[in-house]
Every structure is written in C-alpha cells, then in structure tokens.
Design goal:
Residues 26-126 form the Pirin N-terminal domain. It comes from Actinoplanes sichuanensis. Residues 183-277 form the Pirin C-terminal domain. It holds the Pfam family Pirin_C. This is Pirin family protein. Helices cover 4% and strands 48% of the residues. It is mainly β and 309 residues long. The protein has one domain (11-244): Sandwich (Jelly Rolls). Strands 1, 13, 14, 15, 16, 18, 21 and 23 form an 8-stranded antiparallel β-sheet that branches. A 7-stranded antiparallel β-sheet has the order 2-3-4-11-6-9-12, with no helix packed on it. It contains 1 helix and 25 strands.
Amino acid sequence: MSASPDIADSVLLPGHDVPLGRYTTVRRLLPHRERRMVGAWCFVDHFGPDDVSGRPGMQVPPHPHTGLQTVTWLVDGLIEHRDSLGSHQLITPGRLNLMTSGHGIAHSEFTPPEHPDGMHGLQLWIALPEDARHGPARFEHHAALPSRRDGDVTVTVVIGKLGDQRSPAGVHSPLVGAELVHHAATRHTLDLDPAFEHGVLVMSGEVTVAGTPLASGSLLYLGGGRDHLELESAGPARLFLIGGAPFDEPLVMWWNFVGRSHDDIVRARTQWTAGERFGAVAGCDADPLPAPELPTVRLKARDRHGNTY
C-alpha cells in the first residue's frame, strides 16, 4: 500500500448555520471559500441531530432545481418528498432518495405531522456535467444498498462506487458517497480510488481522519491521490465519505440553480417566476417559494477552486 499524501494537503472546512424554511437550521459545509467542490459534489448540508418532538420539523415548500442531482440521506426522522414528476415518497433512515433535475424540476420536503422525535441527516448536490444537465428529470428511491461489515465498522455505499461495491443509483460522473458507522472505538483503514479527490464529514462522534481530529459537523477535504484512509474513533461515530474525479467544468451556482452562465440563471429564475418549465408539485398545498432578487452585478462562472472566468 503506497503512502497517502501529506496531512498538509488536507483542508478543514467548518460549516456555518443557514435557516432552511421556518423550522430547520442546517450546517452548510459546501460550497466553502476554501473549497467549492469535492469531485462533482458541489453542496453539502448537515442537519441535526435535533429534537423535533412537538415541532413541525422540515417544512420546505415547492422550489425549483436545474443542473444537479439531490441526494437525501436520513439517519433519524421522516421527510415526505413530492415533485413535479408526480413522485410521492416517504424518506426514511438508511434509504436513498435521488432526484435528478436535468433541465428542470420542482419538489417539496415536509416532515409529516406524525413523526419521530429526532431529525438527523444530509442533503447533498451533485453537479451534472454538460452532457446531462439538459436531460429529462427523474426520481429514484433505493431501499437496498450495498453494505459490508469490517470489524466494528459498517460501510454502506449510498451512491457511486467504493472498492468492488456499487450503488444502484444512476450517476453521470465518477464519484462515491458512502456512510461509515463505527459501532465502537476502533481503528480502520479504508481503501480509496487515487484518481478521486475525497472529503469526510463527521455526522456524530469524534474521529481522527488522516491524522486530523474532527468533531461532529466538520468536513475535512483530503485532496486527491490517496489510495487509503486511516480512521480512528474513541467510541461510536458516524461519518460520510464523498469523493469523485475532479470536476473541471466552471459553474454558476445561485439559489437552487446550477448553470454555466449568468444568462442560464436569469432564464431559470424568469421561468420559475412565470410558472413555466418546472411544473407543479401535485398534492402539496403550500405556496411555491418565490425566487430571491438577483444581485445587481453579473454572476460569474467559477471553477472548482473558486477562480472566476
């Protein structure tokens, strides 16, 4: 096994709190001023663990997306998904919801009135490459995902490929998203694809990743060229690994849209406001979210390092 890159190649990306609707606050970890993307992963929100007993939980009315895939992964709680394709799915822990926006889709996310006391999970975005971003929208729900037990660690491949295990979810670029559950204090070596760059999010517990101590809610960017990763936990912990081939297409990200130019974003916003392109979310009585006002300057495309074009 070859040596991993030096620890200096790692960048700690602390999150910041962002309100999501009226009742939920998330920790936003990507995009970050130090690192906009990890592979095609361009957006990471971590929410909870929260006590939502006697509270509404997640309440996000219909809103649009373009140019991305959304990955919703729950550890605790329930979310009811509806979209403009007519999909209606209750999201439960350990099951993957993957929504591909393509040219455009709208969806809503609500915690049902009868729900567990806890809420904890992730929502992540994957940027679609040019040859897929104008394609048709689709929705996938996967209850069965490849998983393996290695000592005191359970590894579940949520999306993409890790080692010889591949998720059934449809993707458009080489990537991985995997949950790592440490059931007790343990040391663990995880094999990686050195062609990928990677990041590790700690969802709960305290873990040392590649020599860096991490607390819950932190994302460590690991760079590329690693063929393995050393993990050590002092007790039970839960991590989420993201990675992929470096994504070299410049992006414009604004509100819920991922495009390639200022004009892409203006067009999507105009069509959402006019009730065009994205369709209606059947079965949801909430009013759609209005788009915010555009900035007074032109939006600039940025590469994965944050450089403008």
